[in-house]
């Protein structure tokens, strides 16, 4: 059996192209499982996984929990609100207390970039990064690539435009790494204030014109404005942002060829996407949600073999 080259999934930057293809190939097998009448396999029957979330999450947390249960793992859920973290307990003490209950794997979301890396150096359990601040969100990038494969047959050679709040997005960074390792071309598009200064070092194209980006790409991955991470105002108003960077079904229909529309969620309808665009035939947003369970099953299963 093929194995990953890493013990932890901390970021796409740490993965090889072979790792990515192994995860996506395994996810394809698990997608068949979750579409069967009996959606469960005993693959992780003796494994206990703790979902340790220090930041709010709906889709990612539910997706991981469902993936774990589909694999027959025992699941423990931890939320920072109402926990001893509020009393001043350190991250390491919190996790070590969870591990003392014989937990084998930690799935963690944290607001501080690098928190999963810090943990992985100090504990024996496998660590899966479910999002660390504005740094990386590896399973989202993997499920996005899986969704592109599903729709277009391959990621290599495709043009993918990532549109929106690039500066505060961990999804953008993970997607850039993941797509480039598979041979895709990447463009980022957004207001100048929401494009990081280092972006040119990553070998991506940059545009500030959403119509130019849509005309260039095969796939548009649209990101929301992350107001909760913004300490200052980066543009005058959401209305103005929507006027210049919002995407409607009319804009998509006017393109000279069909493109695929993606969004990691949650969607701010009427800001980055109109409802008719989000719900149109161009969109594979709900497919991304379904694919997320299969990809996370693959990640957990492969790490458990390490």
TrEMBL record:
Species per Swiss-Prot/TrEMBL record: Larkinella rosea
GO term, biological process aspect, one: 'de novo' pyrimidine nucleobase biosynthetic process
Subunit structure: Heterododecamer (2C3:3R2) of six catalytic PyrB chains organized as two trimers (C3), and six regulatory PyrI chains organized as three dimers (R2).
Biological role: Catalyzes the condensation of carbamoyl phosphate and aspartate to form carbamoyl aspartate and inorganic phosphate, the committed step in the de novo pyrimidine nucleotide biosynthesis pathway.
Start and end residues of each Aspartate/ornithine carbamoyltransferase Asp/Orn-binding domain: 157-303
Pathway membership, UniProt: Pyrimidine metabolism; UMP biosynthesis via de novo pathway; (S)-dihydroorotate from bicarbonate: step 2/3
The protein's Enzyme Commission number: 2.1.3.2
Similarity comment: family membership: Belongs to the aspartate/ornithine carbamoyltransferase superfamily. ATCase family.
Protein name: Aspartate carbamoyltransferase
């Amino acid at each position: 059996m093929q194995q990953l080259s890493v013990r932890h999934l901390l970021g796409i930057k740490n993965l090889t192209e072979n790792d990515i293809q192994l995860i996506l190939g395994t996810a394809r097998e698990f997608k068949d499982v979750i579409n069967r009448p009996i959606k469960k396999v005993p693959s992780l029957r003796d494994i206990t996984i703790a979902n340790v979330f220090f930041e709010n999450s709906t889709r990612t947390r539910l997706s991981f929990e469902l993936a774990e249960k589909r694999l027959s793992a025992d699941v423990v859920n931890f939320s920072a609100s109402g926990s001893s973290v509020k009393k001043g307990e350190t991250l390491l003490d919190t996790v070590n207390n969870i591990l003392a209950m014989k937990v084998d794997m930690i799935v963690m979301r944290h607001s501080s970039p690098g928190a999963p890396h810090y943990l992985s150096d100090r504990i024996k359990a496998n660590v899966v990064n479910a999002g660390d601040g504005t740094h990386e969100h590896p399973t989202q990038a993997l499920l996005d690539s899986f969704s592109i494969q599903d729709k277009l047959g391959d990621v290599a050679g495709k043009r993918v435009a990532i549109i929106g709040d690039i500066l505060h997005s961990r999804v953008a960074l993970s997607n850039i790494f993941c797509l480039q390792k598979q041979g895709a071309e990447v463009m980022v598009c957004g207001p100048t204030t929401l494009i990081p200064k280092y972006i040119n070092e990553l070998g991506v194209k940059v545009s500030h014109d959403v119509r130019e980006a849509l005309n260039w790409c095969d796939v548009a991955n649209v990101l929301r404005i992350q107001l909760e991470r913004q300490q200052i105002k980066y543009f005058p108003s959401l209305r103005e942002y929507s006027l210049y960077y919002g995407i409607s079904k009319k804009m998509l229909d006017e393109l000279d060829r069909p493109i695929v529309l993606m969004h990691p969620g949650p969607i701010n309808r009427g800001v980055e996407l109109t409802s008719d665009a989000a719900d149109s035939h161009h969109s594979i947003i709900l497919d991304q949600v379904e694919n997320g369970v299969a990809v996370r099953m693959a990640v957990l299963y492969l790490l458990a073999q390490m």
